[in-house]
Amino acid sequence: MFEVQLLLISILSSFPSLSLPGFIIPSDFFENLVKSTVALFVVIDPIGNVPLFIALTQNMEKDERKAVSKTAIVTAAALLLVFAVAGSQILTIFGITIYSFMIAGGVLLFIVSIELLTHGVWRFGIGIGTGREGAGESGVVPLAFPLLAGPGAITSVMISFQTTGLIVTMLSISIVIIITYMVLRLVNPIYKMLGRRGSMIFTRIFAVLVAAIAVQYIVQGAKHLFS
Predict the structure, then answer these.
(1) Does the pLDDT of residue 22 top 70, yes or no?
(2) Which residue did the predictor score with more confidence, 105 or 164?
(3) Of 8, 9, 39, 142, most Cβ neighbours within 10 A?
(4) ω into residue 146 within 30 of 0, thus cis?
């Protein structure tokens, strides 16, 4: 049995990649895919973003919340794909670094936290248009950026593209985005369970956590930017 295992290992080692007509699958393809997907999932943290999504959409109807989630998902996916492929070139053209992105994202998140603490709702984007149009526009900021496609996620996909290639990066983004969309679709039952009063309390508590995350983004960005 042991000799058979050694024989199989020697045979597999003689073929560094799996080949298909017109396509070559590297031997470490699935390993890289799992690593990239897990890393991006942890950074985006769709489950952790559910409370903020509830806070931002608590005054919306069910259809409006669905429109917001779709807009946020599509925008986040587009941003991640663009920055994965051309992120380094974009930053170079404008003469900025990823740490500047961290500071900008931190400032946006801090503004969101102040809005949630003082007003209990994200007012910007609401009232721009009507129905699904207005709700969809409010899903871009802060849901798509900087929460879903934030500095951490952008950095993750840029590194993934440089180390594992385009196919692995695109697949990992697709997998995480699909999971995130499925999680956001569960917001309605959660909101129904919490009720309006419970959602308001939840919003105020989570706003403090968002402020702390924002400060951490700003501190880390400034630390690397001015060191």
Answers:
(1) no
(2) 164
(3) 142
(4) yes
Whether the CB-CB separation of 154 and 98 falls below 8 Å is answered with yes
Bridge-based pairing of strands 17-20 and 23-26 is antiparallel
Distances (CA, A) of 50 to 46, 185, 202: 7, 10, 11
Residues 6+ apart with CB under 8 A from 161: 84, 85, 87, 169
Q: Tell whether omega for the bond before 51 is within 30 degrees of 0, i.e. cis.
A: no
Nearest 10 degrees: Cα torsion 123, 125, 126, 128: 140
Decide if pLDDT at 77 tops 90: yes
Angle at 92 between CA 87 and CA 97, to 5 degrees: 75
Three-class DSSP category at 156: helix
Please report, as a single letter, which amino acid is at residue 124. Answer: F
Residue with tokens 């199989």: 8
CA triplet 181, 63, 45: central angle to 5 degrees?
A: 25
Please count the other Cβ atoms lying within 10 Å of the Cβ belonging to residue 191.
21
Identify whether the C-beta of residue 98 lies closer than 8 Å to the C-beta of residue 217.
no
- Tell me the two tokens of residue 135: 């709700």
pLDDT tens digits, 112-147: 788 778 876 666 554 444 455 555 555 687 788 878
Statement: the pTM of the whole predicted model exceeds 0.85:
no
Phi, psi of 85 (to 5 degrees): -85, -45
